[in-house]
Amino acid sequence: MSRVTIAPEEDRLNAQIAFAVEIDKLKRIIRRNHLIDGSRRENTAEHSWHVGMLAMVFGEHAPPETDLQRVVAMLLVHDLVEIDAGDTFIYDPVEVAAQAEAERAAADRIFGLLPDDQGKWMRELWEEFEARKTPEARFAKALDRFAPILANHLTEGGTWPLFKVKASQVKEKVRLIQEGSPSLGAYALRLVELSVARGHLAE
Amino acid sequence: MSRVTIAPEEDRLNAQIAFAVEIDKLKRIIRRNHLIDGSRRENTAEHSWHVGMLAMVFGEHAPPETDLQRVVAMLLVHDLVEIDAGDTFIYDPVEVAAQAEAERAAADRIFGLLPDDQGKWMRELWEEFEARKTPEARFAKALDRFAPILANHLTEGGTWPLFKVKASQVKEKVRLIQEGSPSLGAYALRLVELSVARGHLAE
């Protein structure tokens, strides 16, 4: 009988490489909203970078004691499931409901590529983000909602008129921002009201 | 005389917003290398997300005691100067030399948009990355060099044959990986040798 060579470290590295290669696909998932210069639609990888940066920039607008480094990590992984499940348009309730099951299956597959301990750790970050029960998750979600409102405000309404979104619907998203960060929520509300006043968002 | 109303908190938030808007431009800076599926060239914002993720995935390949959260933060900001200075092709020595001054000017302007304390903090992260004197910076640089080698290896050489890059030049970059992470350096060297064996990289 031949001796079986077990190289667990090699296996770990190979699993990590497979995951690193797989997540490259997030660069091809296209979101509804546009870049702030209006030149093209945004992809989910660059969006994830942007909101990770926002966690560093707006950190002082999180509640005291918020672990901002955890927020950054959460935001980097928060949309990985879109590789399989695609981007969900947050103003379409049917799409939002159908998405949950698809995202769980995506999480099983994608985080499952990693060594068990790492897959568990990243999946927990994603689940924490989705559950919005910790200050970190609520702040991360606030930034995730803040970014497209800022972009739409700066691009004459951006996706709002395009998808016939109304101010009352955007204000529901602003409430999520307020729950994660009162000061960013107040700022977002002003942007929404200004967009309405300028005729870029229907009342 | 009218009373001057000073609202320093408002000023801080406005500066943070201006920076958040400005950095959106990183999504339009196009790098030499392609996505792993070969479909298009990569932009610097999505690259920054990818290497930030790699810091989380390959953390155990950093020297013990490396502050991985600092590595993630460093990688998110490491290429912001490209908004003004553009991407540098690392295999062009003339381009690399001319770039240093342009990047310093870019850092002055871009980090200068932030409130002073935050601009200083982020600029220090960038300078630490560039200087490669800390384990965090050496590991961050290793990941920044590892990503395109992995992508090129997986795309029949990718930018290597396109820009007539030779194995000896790639091996100089592998040395930077080894300095930040011996195990990732060893892996990258195997990828390079495999690419040579397959005829995707000239000796």
Q: What do these coordinates show?
A:
Chains A, B: Its cofactor is Co(2+); Mn(2+). Two copies of one chain form a homodimer. The first copy, chain A, has 203 residues and is mostly helical. Chain A has a single domain (10-33, 41-197), classed as Hypothetical protein af1432 (Orthogonal Bundle), CATH 1.10.3210.10. Chain A contains ten helices and two strands. Chain A has helices at residues 8-22, 44-57, 68-77, 82-85, 93-111, 116-131, 135-154, 159-162, 167-180, 182-197, and strands at residues 30-34, 41-43. The first copy, chain A, has a two-stranded antiparallel sheet with strand order 1-2. In chain A, a hairpin with a 6-residue loop joins strand 1 and strand 2 (41-43). In chain A, helix 2 crosses helix 7 (135-154) and helix 3 (68-77) crosses helix 7 (135-154). Chain A is globular. The first copy, chain A, starts with 7 loop residues before the first helix and ends in a 6-residue tail after the last helix. The mean pLDDT of chain A is 93. At the A-B interface, helix 1, helix 2, helix 3 and helix 7 of A face helix 1, helix 2, helix 3 and helix 7 of B.
